[in-house]
Amino acid sequence: MIKASAKGRDLLIAHVTDRFYCSDNTCSHLGGDLSAGVLNGTIITCPMHHFRFDLKDDHIVRWTDLTGRVLTVAINQRPPHPLRTYPVCVEGDKIFAVL
């Protein structure tokens, strides 16, 4: 994984098996730096609150590991949002994201 910038956006570029994926590098919950997270296959885990997103299709795999009253407060204050992903094309040794 690498962090990149384009058109004023911080992006995450991930290489998984034979494909590249691109998403916002900022977690949609509280702005964690996803490039500092953990990538397992196409699942990126935010280092702040352990949210998990699938880079293939931007869906939320696990919103948080919070429980009980703290989870209720978190949902009410900042409901879950999918991670924005972008199509990627590779030309030679260059990677292009369609923003």
Query: What CATH architecture do you see?
Result: 3-layer Sandwich
Using the coordinates shown, work out and report the CATH topology.
Rieske Iron-sulfur Protein
Quick one: CATH class?
Answer: Mainly Beta
From N to C, what is the helix and strand string?
EEEEEEEHEEE
Radius of gyration: 14 Å
Number of domains: 1
Largest sheet: 4 strands, antiparallel
The number of distinct β-strands equals 10
Question: Which regions are unreliable across 5 or more consecutive residues at pLDDT < 50?
Answer: none
Overall average pLDDT: 89
Helix fraction, binned, reads 10-25%
The computed structural class is mainly beta
**How many H/I helices?**
1
In angstroms, what separates the terminal alpha carbons?
A: 18 Å
